């Protein structure tokens, strides 16, 4: 254990991608960023739009690093690599601490990366027939089971420390999440990994800690817009009305039309917009303190490896829903969610107006007829960042941004570099060395990459042509889910 800590500090990445793959990924991401910027409905005005990351509610946290771990050995194609394996810790926005294991062995972590509670459908767990077995492992091993003597007896191990228990648990998870040929270096940790791997049974995906469904509604002034239904395991949630409600007169009410300040699972909330209110939009926020269910996935928008929850303190969770209204014409409501099954992002658009709502995205035209709702899947390539804004009537704008991370690397490790002593900074330009973006998660080249993307907004047509020539999109755009 002392050797492990001398080689890898408590923030090491699980592993590092190869330099060759990293270089090609930088080029691909640069082109992809330009393509999506060129496909945006709004150009210079995008910064003023409401930004909607693919976060449907729950906990948002900042990655600290590996806290309890030992060593493991990955074998692939006749080569092997020693890596740290164990528990990460994350600090929850608003208060609380999460413990997690990683589920993408070949992806690096970024220190201080922001993570969001995410459905399995938006991660590499989508389509993984063994995802439920991973949750069983989490429920039946450390830290959920903190009686290490009892855990050692079940595993047939002589004894387990917190470090060896965390390493053995991570190894068992990797075998199911990545299909990896990986063993714990410590023989007792390896016994635990074998026991967990062989004993695991399929269990269901846990429900989100807190969501609002749907996350966007629309209608006419003088009506109650909604309903927006609260979904949570918490006993109660607080309801925060729109920031300018005192001026606009917009209230958040229940089914009985009375203003509400708290709600529970299944509660229906409405935006009560007074008649004569000028065309506009508003948002409500619900918040609670609860434990996040074990097995919830956490994804980062900065290409830091996906995590799966192993433990939670009482933590702050929140969700936001928006409403838009107008006197006449199209009245759109938009929300977005990653769809790994279709390798893209689902844009759900409804129109409560009296005229069609039409928008263009990535060269395709989509029309939502009055009184209808449709889901449009925007196809993306793996690891492709996106940033686009959809405009509507009466100054309506919604901006969606993120990165599609739906698959584990699953490639050889022969050319991989050793993990860095610490995860790379998540902020742009945070690195100071010469490592490329994919290998370290951030470098001095990052601002240049961002600059190229800006240039490619202007040269959108050329960017689209080059990307299509290099590699065709994984899936043609479709109008329906």
List the helices and strands and how they pair.
Elements: H1 2-7, H2 19-38, E1 50-51, E2 60-76, E3 79-92, E4 97-102, E5 110-111, E6 114-118, H3 131-139, H4 148-155, H5 162-177, E7 181-184, H6 187-199, E8 210-213, E9 216-219, E10 224-232, E11 237-240, H7 245-248, E12 251-253, E13 262-263, E14 268-272, E15 280-290, E16 297-300, E17 307-312, E18 315-325, E19 332-339, E20 344-351, E21 357-361, E22 364-368, E23 372-379, E24 385-391, E25 397-403, E26 424-425, H8 437-440, H9 446-458, H10 460-470
Parallel strand pairs: 1-25, 5-26, 9-18
Antiparallel strand pairs: 2-3, 2-6, 2-7, 3-4, 4-17, 6-16, 8-10, 10-14, 11-13, 11-15, 12-14, 15-18, 16-17, 19-20, 20-23, 21-22, 24-25
Radius of gyration: 23 Å
The structure class reads: alpha+beta
Shape: elongated
How many DSSP H or I helices?
Answer: 10
Mean residue pLDDT: 79
Quote the beta fraction: 25-35%
Report the sheet with the most strands, covering strand number, pairing sense and barrel closure.
Answer: 6 strands, antiparallel, barrel
User: Helical amount among residues, as a percent range?
Assistant: 10-25%
Q: How are the strands of the biggest sheet laid out side by side? A: 2-3-4-17-16-6
Write down how many β-strands occur, each being a DSSP E stretch of 2 or more residues.
Answer: 26
Give start-end ranges of low-pLDDT stretches.
Answer: 1-13, 15-49, 411-481
* Span of the ends, CA to CA: 50 Å
């Amino acid at each position: 254990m002392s050797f492990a800590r001398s080689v890898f500090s408590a923030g090491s990445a699980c592993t590092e991608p190869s330099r060759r793959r990293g270089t090609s990924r930088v080029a691909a991401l640069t082109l992809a960023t330009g393509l999506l910027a060129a496909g945006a409905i709004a150009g210079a005005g995008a910064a003023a739009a409401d930004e909607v990351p693919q976060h449907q509610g729950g906990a948002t946290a900042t990655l600290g690093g590996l806290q309890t771990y030992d060593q493991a050995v990955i074998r692939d194609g006749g080569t092997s690599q020693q890596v740290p394996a164990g528990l990460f810790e994350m600090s929850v926005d608003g208060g609380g601490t999460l413990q997690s294991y990683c589920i993408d062995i070949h992806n690096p972590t970024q220190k201080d990366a922001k993570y969001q509670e995410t459905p399995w459908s938006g991660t590499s767990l989508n389509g993984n027939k063994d995802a439920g077995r991973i949750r069983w492992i989490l429920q039946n091993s450390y830290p959920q089971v903190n009686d290490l003597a009892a855990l050692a007896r079940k595993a047939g191990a002589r004894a387990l420390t917190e470090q060896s228990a965390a390493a053995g648990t991570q190894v068992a998870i990797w075998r199911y999440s990545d299909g990896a040929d990986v063993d714990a270096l410590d023989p007792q940790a390896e016994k635990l990994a074998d026991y967990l791997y062989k004993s695991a049974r399929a269990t269901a995906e846990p429900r989100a800690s807190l969501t609002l469904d749907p996350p966007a509604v629309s209608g006419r002034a003088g009506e109650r817009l909604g309903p927006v239904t609260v979904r949570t395991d918490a006993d109660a949630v607080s309801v925060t009305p729109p920031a300018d409600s005192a001026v606009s007169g917009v209230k958040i009410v229940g089914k009985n039309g009375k203003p509400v300040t708290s709600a529970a699972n299944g509660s229906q909330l409405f935006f009560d917009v007074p008649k004569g209110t000028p065309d506009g939009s508003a948002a409500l926020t619900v918040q609670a303190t609860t434990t996040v269910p074990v097995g919830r996935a956490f994804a980062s928008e900065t290409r830091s490896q996906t995590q799966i929850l192993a433990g939670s303190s009482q933590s702050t969770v929140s969700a936001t829903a928006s409403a838009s209204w107008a006197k006449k014409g199209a009245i759109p409501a938009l929300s977005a969610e990653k769809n790994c099954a279709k390798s893209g992002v689902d844009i759900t658009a409804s129109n409560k107006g009296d005229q069609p709502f039409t928008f263009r995205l990535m060269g395709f035209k989509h029309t939502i007829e009055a009184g209808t709702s449709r889901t449009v899947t925007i196809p993306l390539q793996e690891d492709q960042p996106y940033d686009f804004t959809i405009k509507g009537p009466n100054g309506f704008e919604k901006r969606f941004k993120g990165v599609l991370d739906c698959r584990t690397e699953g490639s050889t490790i022969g050319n991989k570099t050793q993990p860095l002593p610490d995860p790379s900074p998540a902020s742009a330009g945070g690195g100071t060395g010469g490592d490329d973006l994919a290998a370290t998660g951030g470098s001095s080249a990052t601002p240049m990459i961002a600059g190229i993307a800006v240039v490619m907004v202007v040269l959108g047509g050329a960017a689209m042509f080059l990307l299509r020539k290099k590699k065709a999109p994984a899936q043609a755009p479709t109008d329906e889910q």
